[in-house]
Each structure stands twice: as C-alpha cells, then as structure tokens.
Write a structure and sequence with these properties.
The protein is α+β, with helices and mostly antiparallel strands and 157 residues long. The chain folds into 2 domains: 1-30; 31-153, Immunoglobulin-like (Sandwich). It has helices spanning 2-28, 109-120, 150-153, and strands spanning 34-46, 49-60, 66-77, 80-87, 91-93, 97-108, 124-135, 138-149. A hairpin with a 2-residue loop joins strand 7 and strand 8. It is globular, with a radius of gyration of 22 Å. The relative contact order is 0.20.
C-alpha cells in the first residue's frame, strides 16, 4: 500500500512539474484572430490558371501586437474549391485593431469560371476560406464562410 501511495505521489509530482514547465508556452499561445473576406481580385486570367489577390480583414482582439508570419489558405467559391493563397510578407496585427492584408494565390481557371457561372443567377457568391496561420511562433487554424455580391467580391479598387 505504501509503495502504491509513493508511486502515485511521484506521478503527481512529475505531472505538477510538467504543468509548471509548460505554463509559459500555454500562456503564449496566440488566440485565433477574427477573419473576414474583404475582396477577391482576379489579377490575371489566362490558360488553365488564374492569379488571385485575396484581401482579408483580420481582427486582433488581444492586448498586444502579434506578428503574422505565414499563412496558407484554401479558397472555395459556390462550394467549388478554386485555389490556394499565401502571405507574401509578414504582417503585424496591432492590438485591439483590425488590419487588412492581401494574400496572393493561384486558382484553376476552369474551377473559377464554374463557381462564377453558378453564382450569376443568385447575384451573390457563397465563399469559404480556411487555412493555418503562423502567429508569434504558434500555429492556429482559421476559417470563415459568408456571402458577397459579385460586384462587392470582384471590386477592382
């Protein structure tokens, strides 16, 4: 019985040490920023591939600035996977602020055309973006779904 209690005490002690040692890492884990699609711009359309510029509005609700070092995302329009995009250079997300960032990517011309033709009747596009972001050394997933009018989505500003 004493051996069992001593073993349980050692296990509890090691667990407490591990918990204490990982506390800074848990505290430093960045929160998932609020992401919204502002605009999707077709920069070049030719052959089998289109070049895209995707502008996202990213809200950092935290109390400190965070560095957005890398992003990889998938883009879906009208339930059709059309392409991928990534962050071309790091962005600082100011504390308690919303930042716009543009991501560049590629899309299948055929998939993009199919998604837009499907959306013409409704005059709006259902979209989904999902991916992972490297924020201050941590990896966080993000996803957002919504609707945009064709004019709003493809605004040429």
């Amino acid at each position: 019985m004493k051996t069992r209690i001593a073993s349980l005490a050692r296990v509890a002690f090691v667990a407490a040490l591990l918990f204490a040692a990982t506390a800074p890492a848990r505290a430093a884990t960045p929160s998932v920023p609020n992401v919204a699609l502002e605009r999707l711009r077709i920069e070049r359309l030719g052959g089998r591939e289109a070049q895209l510029a995707i502008t996202l509005s990213i809200e950092n609700a935290g109390d400190r600035d965070i560095a957005l070092n890398a992003v990889e995302m998938n883009v879906e329009l009208a339930h059709v996977p059309v392409g991928t995009a990534s962050l071309s250079e790091p962005v600082v997300l100011s504390a308690r602020a919303r930042t716009s960032a543009t991501f560049h990517g590629t899309a299948s011309s055929d998939a993009l055309a199919a998604a837009l033709v499907t959306s013409l009747d409704r005059r709006d596009v259902e979209y989904a973006i999902a991916g992972i972001a490297q924020i201050d050394g941590g990896i966080v997933p993000f996803a957002e779904r919504g609707h945009k009018s064709l004019a709003e989505l493809l605004d040429r500003r």
